[in-house]
Amino acid sequence: MKDDKERNLEITDLAHESAKLRLFVEAPLFEGAAISLKDAQAHYVIHVMRANAGDRVLLFNGRDGEWLARVAKISRKDAILSCDSKTAEQAGVPDLWLAFAPIKKTPADYVAQKATELGTSRLQPVFTDRTVVRRVNTARLRANAIEAAEQSGRLNVPEIEEPLALEALLRSWPKERRLVFCDEGGDARPIAEVLAAAKGSAGAWGVLTGPEGGFTKKERSAIRRHPFVLPVTLGPRIMRADTAALAALAVWQSVLGDWAAL
Amino acid sequence: MKDDKERNLEITDLAHESAKLRLFVEAPLFEGAAISLKDAQAHYVIHVMRANAGDRVLLFNGRDGEWLARVAKISRKDAILSCDSKTAEQAGVPDLWLAFAPIKKTPADYVAQKATELGTSRLQPVFTDRTVVRRVNTARLRANAIEAAEQSGRLNVPEIEEPLALEALLRSWPKERRLVFCDEGGDARPIAEVLAAAKGSAGAWGVLTGPEGGFTKKERSAIRRHPFVLPVTLGPRIMRADTAALAALAVWQSVLGDWAAL
What we know:
The structure is a homodimer of 262-residue chains.
Chain A: H1 2-15, E1 19-24, E2 34-36, H2 39-48, E3 56-60, E4 66-74, E5 79-88, E6 96-100, H3 105-117, E7 122-127, H4 138-152, E8 159-160, E9 164-165, H5 166-172, E10 178-182, E11 189-190, H6 191-197, E12 205-209, H7 217-224, E13 229-233, H8 241-255
Parallel strand pairs in A: 1-3, 6-7, 6-12, 7-8, 7-9, 10-12, 10-13, 11-13
Antiparallel strand pairs in A: 2-5, 3-4, 4-5
């Protein structure tokens, strides 16, 4: 907890000197809105951050922009924030989904955190033939994504979808949404080259990464059969599943996303 | 331990069906060489992997290529491998250093692992004004790098340097080695654009990332004063120090490294 606390302080110091905290809330945000914190969030603010009445807090809800609020009332059990002024207009992230085969518990948390920092709009766990994990705690993924959104300055939280089998994912994938398939097979083209060729044509994108051990041959050809799929290679070394996912997201943002030159 | 074991099995299954393990060793490798495993490595092979006489093992030492060996003798305490045939000629990775401000213990391990998978040739911890960590366990970083090299199919292990103060790093930095400075300040150019402009001019490179909280203003101008420094931005979101490092390495490999089109 201490790391998060320290970090939250540092970030909001940089962003808005007066605010000690940056929180995602569900409630509507407008001038004079009173936000009553609940459960884990109330505990965090009261007992971990030890907030006092009058302390400044930044709030966002994914719809109404970012607001500067202050702690209006605080007790050992309850904290009520009062919304003062808008500090940023609502803004999204690029339309980039990550479909990933969940691996072990910690790496999935890690993927949620990192993918959020890397500006992903949706996280979609996928079950494949070699996926060992058979259950995904989406509430936990969402908690990790919220924390990362709070710390990264995002104004929204990525959508966390329930897991899908690979076949169902491919069947339901929107036809106009291009899917960057991180393929360990031999003939895929380098990722930067494939993405650069798509430059200038805006639109919706996704990245698909496999489990440890990779996709089976059968899965690889089933994936490649779809016209929206762009197979790419991430170089000659074998990467862990989470490394591959984060690397592909970073390269995408640098070529086609909001890290790219205007 | 189980994850590593499973993973090691999977990877070497893919690489060379007959080998159950891939190990980095210090000893020279040649036909008929007898390699006596020591300490933690002997323990791993004997008690974790439960190897038997005759089992196949892949070996590399960073100099002599990759060799297929077999377990010649094994007891509860000792394991001796015998080198049979070369399976790959020695090959390096691109000449890319990562200079990073160490953060907390787990992230530094993580950075060593991921940077190894991402094909970094040297890891250089750097102490900056806002670096909280004041000691770096380089033996532990090296152990993480070795494990990642074994699993990623690399034929060498990145060099792990002792920490340097930022000033000493800049003073001793080779003049001809370009340094990609991940700058949170406002006017740096997008990373893909800066790297694309350097395309075609081969050479030695490095990436520099800061601690949580970033570099101070004074540090930023000290860094930018050097002609070998190329300031870049990694987009509008605030990233954790380890995310920034991995993202910059991935983008570099995709534009200038061995993930790029020939």
